[in-house]
Amino acid sequence: MQKETAGDAPSAPTTRVRHRKRNSDVGAGAGKPNGSHLLVNDSKKYKSFLIRAYSTVWMIGGFALIVYLGHLYITAMVVVIQIFMARELFNLLRKTHEDKQLPGFRLLNWHFFFTAMLFVYGRILSQRLVNTVTPDKFLYRLVTSLIKYHMAICYSLYISGFVWFILTLKKKMYKYQFSQYAWTHMILIVVFTQSSFTVANIFEGIFWFLLPASLIVINDIFAYICGFFFGRTPLIKLSPKKTWEGFIGASITTVISAFLLANIMGRFLWLTCPREDLSTGWLHCDPGPLFKQETHVLPGWISNWFPWKEITILPVQWHALCLGLFASIIAPFGGFFASGFKRAFKIKDFGDSIPGHGGITDRMDCQMVMAVFAYIYHQSFVVPEFLSVDKLLDQIITSLTLEEQQALFMKLGQMLQEKVIGS
Amino acid sequence: MRILSYFLLCFAFSHTTIFVFFFSFFALSANLSSFSSLFLPISASKSHFPIDVILLIFFAKNKTLRAMEEENVTSSPSTPVHRLRHRRRSNEVVMDGDRVNASPLLVNDRNKYKSFMVRTYSTLWMIGGFVLIVYMGHLYITAMVVVIQIFMAKELFNLLRKAPEDKCLPWIKQLNWHFFFTAMLFVYGRILSQRLANTMTADQFFYRLVTGLIKYHMAICYLLYIIGFMWFILTLKKKMYKYQFGQYAWTHMILIVVFTQSSFTVANIFEGIFWFLLPASLIIINDIFAYIFGFFFGRTPLIKLSPKKTWEGFIGASVTTIISAFVLANILGRYPWLTCPRQDLSTGWLQCDADPLFKPEPFALPAWIPEWFPWKEMTVLPVQWHALCLGLFASIIAPFGGFFASGFKRAFKIKDFGDSIPGHGGITDRMDCQMVMAVFAYIYLQSFIVSQSVSVDKILDQILTNLTFEEQQALFVKLGQMLKDKLS
After folding, report:
1. Chain A window 345-384: which residues touch B at a Cβ cutoff of 8 Å?
2. To the nearest whole angstrom, how far is the Cα of A175 from the nearest Cα of chain B?
3. DSSP for B279-335?
4. pTM of the prediction?
């Protein structure tokens, strides 16, 4: 996990840098498959690794607890992570000297952050918010009108931020202010695209959030292990510690574990059911044909020496293979992008929130690419497969009011009529 | 008669620019000579008509162009380029015009007759071409918007590029165009998908191809983007990292700015040309009248970013824009060609039921209007009230787009965004306020005028892209039965 944070030539003798130098030694030394290096270095670094192991255990433990608590808490965790990530990134390219002369500028960043959060989460959670407040008449009307004018509200907030920005332009600071403005937009786009897609995935079923995240973690860990034991040929100039052997070994392991993990996770209703509203209670649902077990008879040439004659496969495992393939081959490019970015702007780490690991963005760089892919894959290939006339009718009945249903009916009739006339 | 009376009203404000605008628009649909004899007090007889009209147009263009070049004026032009000389001379004209003095106008007019010929010529071509394209229809306007945005993107891509670094990076231009193509596919695919599907008939091969493309549209665009992303990372060169990341961020910002506003413009066009023509005209009118009012009454400077703009010009232009929004909406709202939405990608004539927004309603003037006012009640199209909001935004908030562009040019020490249009600068110089207006017009349209909710759209999309024709018909029948049961 820490190969990405290794720099070229650490100069300041801080504890973290000393750790990384020693780890680089380990990485370089492990080029020769020599078991003694590992044990020798291990006893020296036992104390220094304790910190990293401690924070990793806390991260995984907290993560498991939140998954157990449910969709809303996972969403809250995602929101908190993204606030910290945005703060790290906002502070990254800031110059304190110029900032002293621009008093309201930091506030402007958080104004745009709040607008983006309102826009993005409003779009994704609007339907579920409506479903939550249906019993209460007053809140229902308030929420539906907010949703109707949601885009207008967010636009007026954005325009007020835009006008504020122009009115605070100061002579001789134009270039700095415009660069900060562009930087703010880029950060917000990067952070909110992936977090909004993550939240959308969560409400489709925790499975679609947990599986991609686990695959990235597994890919990282096994890339380190395989590189540690077999690493010889360097992979890319951007990250000199990564090796082809580590890459290929991790790919194979990730794909296999995607297949197995999907089987294990797919058996729990808590993970596979979508959540239709913002409640936090237990979920009951019909999981859908994706999670129903099918038995496959193994072909003859395997069953001779393999003890099982047939295996039960959930159809979702085939989708998990695609996710695993992406996680092993394309998601590491997110890490390369982050490494290149840090080199370009001569930064060691994005921040130092997590002891031993660097900032939150350091941990989330590959996750971001994976979250976007998981969402798009889910929307393009998983959802349409199982849409049928009955399911759509169900959706129409549950999510539309009577007037909306009638409007839909009329529009559909018009379009079908035009098609019939045209053909 | 109504139309002519409205014209006289506008004519009372200014005899130059509105005349020019409507002249070109109505020349297509009215007899040229009869119109001119009504509106040209200068030319006594019809035989002198062409020369006087041309002189009038040139005079009008001078003011138009000087108003349009307010945004391009910078502090101290150094190189004696032909264009800069124009701008310096017009600086002096504007400063002289602060004193309410009519003679500098005529004096300078004769001197600059030749040099303004170029600007007038290009403005004439721009407005003429624009009117022709509006006449030809939705698809051609969309094509014009696409062409404008390609040129704008090219200008902006080249703006912050440094030649020596570019020589070491052979593929950087292709990468930019790759992202451009991906953004175009994504944005226009989303907006035009429904209309594209309606253009194809049910049983052809193309129908299945198109619906398949629409279904996997997001996945295709994402794939293209990821390919560009990986291409970018694989071409990162040592010691060029900062430049490459800067170019990557710059490319994203350009594409977002250009495609947001052009996609919203195209969406507006297909809701009805009225919703594209009205905001665009309001911005032009605001520019022109800001110049005119600043010319005659300008005294207090408005903002440090653009030293030539004045509070008098700003307020005068706001009032004029709002009034002309009200009037223009009435005129433009009478033509079905402008008000009907287009449901597919055909180019023929449009017939549709007039939206209740465009049906005239009588409006009794309130009692405080003085007795000598000849009309006691007017016919008002309900859309005119919406046009008032559009006019308010165009006069107060849209100029901030111009301030943003001026500040940007000062920050990066550029004179103009490009030089495509002779005498005006680049296309981005002309489009900076239009971009802010287009986004507002779309959001206003979707929030306050189009009454369909988001969920109906989404489900309709799902029905039309994921079900076959027979399944859609089955759903339709079942839904009809269900609604009948509920109502009975």
Report:
1. 345, 372-373, 376-377, 379-381, 384
2. 4
3. HHHHHHHHHHHHHHHHHHH--SEEETTEEEEEHHHHHHHHHHHHHHHHHHHHHHTT-
4. 0.76
